UniProtKB/TrEMBL annotation:
<protein>
    <recommendedName>
        <fullName>Mutator-like transposase domain-containing protein</fullName>
    </recommendedName>
</protein>
<dbReference type="InterPro" id="IPR049012">
    <property type="entry name" value="Mutator_transp_dom"/>
</dbReference>
<feature type="domain" description="Mutator-like transposase">
    <location>
        <begin position="1"/>
        <end position="61"/>
    </location>
</feature>
<dbReference type="Pfam" id="PF20700">
    <property type="entry name" value="Mutator"/>
</dbReference>
Length: 62
């Protein structure tokens, strides 16, 4: 995960993609997540879930 983040940062720097302060590289990611939820018969929501973060440039999981 750390290597994917470092690569995404490096590519943003190489493209000259920085925040307004000019110091922080801007990276774009796609995020999705979910958790178990049962509504038939009983009310139940899981205390934990899953999430995934994918770098736009590298298409790698963070």
């Amino acid at each position: 995960m750390l290597e994917a983040g470092k690569e995404e940062k490096r590519l943003a720097e190489a493209a000259g993609d920085f925040c307004e302060n000019g110091c922080t590289p801007k990276i774009t990611v796609v995020v999705d997540g979910g958790w178990s939820h049962r509504s038939h018969g009983h009310r139940y929501s899981a205390n934990s879930g899953v999430a995934v973060i994918i770098g736009k440039r590298t298409k790698k999981l963070f």
